[in-house]
Design brief:
CATH topology of the largest domain: Rossmann fold
Distance between the termini: 41 Å
Number of strands: 14
Radius of gyration: 22 Å
Largest sheet: 6 strands, parallel
Strand content: 15-25%
Oligomer: single chain
CATH superfamily of the largest domain: Nitrogenase molybdenum iron protein domain
Structural class: alpha/beta
CATH architecture of the largest domain: 3-Layer(aba) Sandwich
Helix content: 40-55%
CATH class of the largest domain: Alpha Beta
């Protein structure tokens, strides 16, 4: 078995836990929180996401999800048009009519989200009150919740945070439970959720729930006997709601790569008193597979310099992964928001002296990137093509959200997302030379 790879300067007592961070508050480039619907509508099988917005919102979602005109996705847009702007229509009646038609056409819906967007006419609508009214009308068959996916208020991954916070706030509180429940929080691909569920069962953990659940009726109860562990780093609002309802957080890094996944699983195992022998039996084979998969990419990645623009809030866990497990050198790690409590374990594993930035001033950050001339730039779609035109090799950060990357069996796929752009650049360079 290969020994775990350890990058230089990643030993005990080092890291960026107390490091000063460059805080930027200038022009920034992000998708809006509506984009989270692209993966959320596939996760909750009998839920529907009704965006209350403009034609621009509808076009954005159609493009982002790649949905054909004749498809039946579990999302749609209630378009606010000129009649509503002029006050010629009662918005409550209009919205009620849209919801009634939707539920008649899609009787499988058991959970309906009203998702607010950023047009000014939408911001004026009290969607919380509308959701409460519609929920009373359609109960018990359909629950109606609301959250904001407005680009004014959120980055694109915060759409998931707002959605899960709404679910957590609506979940029943159980004060009578006599045993602890492990709650895994964050939308994971079904294949990843199933892998984690099997490993927890092998450790002897039977009381395991996931938020969001695959079906609306299976959403977990919350209470003082709930111990939750975050699977995504961008769930600050959700964590706050869970703790307000009595749940306690398990401090852990995030399950990316062989070492990140092992540390994440170990944190959960320790919280529930799993002994080392049971933990090793449950994780050893997966850890070995992940190391073998990563070894296929490490030679090509080791020593390469990488620059992260702020976009998804995954940047710090991804930076830890590429440095610790692939040997890449971190030029700058930018993130939209830096939640030090949730990222404490990741920050501790970054090499001391890593340049961290929070927020964005895009022109100044572009200047720093050009001056450093990294081997790979991770950024949003709006910056990738211009940077490619300047000769940089880029990786779309949104692809790292859409792709299953958590867990042992996805470690090689995660590494490939970083190695593929460099391989493409090498191949294109060879063709041009020939």
């Amino acid at each position: 078995m290969n020994l775990p790879f350890r990058a230089p300067n990643s030993g005990p007592g080092r890291g960026c836990t107390d490091q000063t961070t460059l805080k930027q508050r200038g022009q920034h480039e992000v998708f809006c929180g509506l984009t989270g619907i692209v993966w959320l509508h596939r996760k909750i099988e009998n839920a529907f996401f009704l965006i209350v917005g403009s034609r621009t919102c509808a076009h954005l979602m159609q493009s982002a999800a790649g949905v054909m005109i004749f498809a039946e996705p579990r999302f749609g847009t209630a378009i606010i048009d000129e009649r509503d702007l002029a006050g010629l229509a009662d918005i409550d009646d209009e919205l009620d009519g849209v919801v009634n038609k939707l539920l008649q056409r899609r009787p499988d819906i058991e959970l309906l989200f009203l998702v607010g967007s950023c047009p000014s006419e939408v911001i004026k609508i009290d969607l919380k009150r509308a959701a409460q009214r519609l929920s009373k009308i359609h109960t018990p068959k359909v629950r109606v919740l609301n959250y904001s996916g407005s680009g004014i208020e959120t980055t694109f991954t915060q759409g998931e945070d707002a959605c899960l916070a709404a679910l957590a706030a609506d979940a029943p509180v159980d004060h009578t439970a006599t045993t602890d429940t492990l709650l895994v929080v964050g939308a994971l691909a079904d294949v990843v959720e199933d892998q984690f569920r099997r490993m927890f069962a092998t450790m002897g953990l039977k009381n395991v729930a996931f938020l969001p659940a695959k079906r609306a009726a299976d959403m977990p109860t919350i209470g003082p006997r709930t111990r939750y562990i975050l699977a995504q780093p961008f769930l600050g609002d959700t964590a706050r709601v869970l703790e307000d309802r009595g749940a306690k957080r398990i401090i852990a890094p995030f399950p990316l790569g062989a070492e990140g996944t092992t540390a994440w699983l170990k944190a959960a195992a320790d919280a529930f008193g799993v002994d080392d022998a049971e933990f090793t039996a449950a994780t050893e084979a997966g850890h070995r597979r992940a190391l073998i998969a990563l070894a296929a990419h490490r030679d090509a990645m080791q020593g390469k310099r990488i620059f992260f623009f702020p976009d998804s809030q995954l940047e710090i866990p991804l930076a830890r992964f590429v440095h610790e497990e692939l040997g890449m050198r971190l030029v700058e790690v930018g993130t939209p928001y830096l939640h030090r409590a949730h990222l404490s374990e990741e920050l501790a594993r970054l090499p001391s002296g890593t340049f961290l930035s929070e927020g964005q001033d895009v022109d100044r950050q572009l200047d720093r990137c050009r001056a450093e001339d990294p081997d790979l730039v991770v950024c949003g779609l709006g910056l990738a093509n211009p940077l490619e035109a300047e000769g940089f090799t880029t990786k779309w950060s949104i692809e790292l959200v859409f792709t299953p990357i958590q867990g042992y069996d996805q470690a090689g796929d995660l590494a490939r997302l970083f190695s593929r752009p460099l391989d493409r650049r090498t191949r294109l360079g060879g063709l041009l030379c020939n």
